[in-house]
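Hi W., the adenosine-5'-triphosphate complex you wanted:
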Amino acid sequence: MGHHSLEETQGERREAAARAVDLVKTYGQGATQVVALDGVSVDFAANEFTAIMGPSGSGKSTLMHAMAGLDSFTSGSAYIGGTDLAGLSDKELTALRRDRLGFIFQSFNLVPTLTAAENITLPTDIAGRKVDQEWFEEITRRLGLAERLSHRPSELSGGQQQRVACARALVSRPDIIFGDEPTGNLDSNASREVLDILRNAVDADGQTVVIVTHDARAASYADRVIFLRDGRIVDELYEPTMDAILQVMSGIEG
Ligand SMILES: Nc1ncnc2c1ncn2[C@@H]1O[C@H](COP(=O)(O)OP(=O)(O)OP(=O)(O)O)[C@@H](O)[C@H]1O
Ligand SMILES: [Mg+2]
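Structure:
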């Protein structure tokens, strides 16, 4: 059953994999200042799948980038597990991202000179870890990349590039996977595969998944949906149904 309770997030839920405390992010100064995040406090529980929704410009990407240590913020705090991101040097932040986080972003950041297979294993290789070959094969097969592994990004469609980015984020089984519209460019079959794999990463592998999405169907795979508007969390749903999500969204966007 879906239920609305902000209190529950403060209570005895599972330990937070990532946490924001009164996070503020402003761009610019004076009359042209934009408040992208207006004091966001949220816990993403370990071993939970969270979706972030909200209108365009509501601060979803800003929140995810700040919490994932990819962007600075103006005030407040962000934690990965017990680690305060503000206390880390650039080098430590890079190491934390590499060792514990996986990213599926709209701008794919694939390395143009490497093949799909090399791109997928790059973070694992850089971290000096061994690629789980069976897992690599399963993921690339499920994402329909098996026949494309020797292609370079320029030889792949946009959707295929996005699936390579998904495989790259999944293959190392990071503690937390952050996805900014990870199914944004995908057809319904590929979307379903990505969402099933993310769901399974939480249910079977104990990983934590946080995605931004505009798609109610994608969000319905999550355990929890939080809704942003004007840089604030304005609602949330647990065990969301598509209907409940669409209802909240129409209220927020209306
Ligand atoms: N580099 C920047 N300089 C100035 N303003 C910015 C910058 N990046 C984002 N913003 C502003 O911050 C606000 C939040 O942007 P953000 O990208 O987080 O929105 P979003 O919810 O991810 O939107 P979308 O669904 O369109 O991706 C917007 O008003 C945006 O214009
Ligand atoms: Mg965005």
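Strands lie at 16-27, 34-45, 49-53, 75-80, 83-84, 101-104, 176-180, 208-212, 224-229, 232-238.

W.
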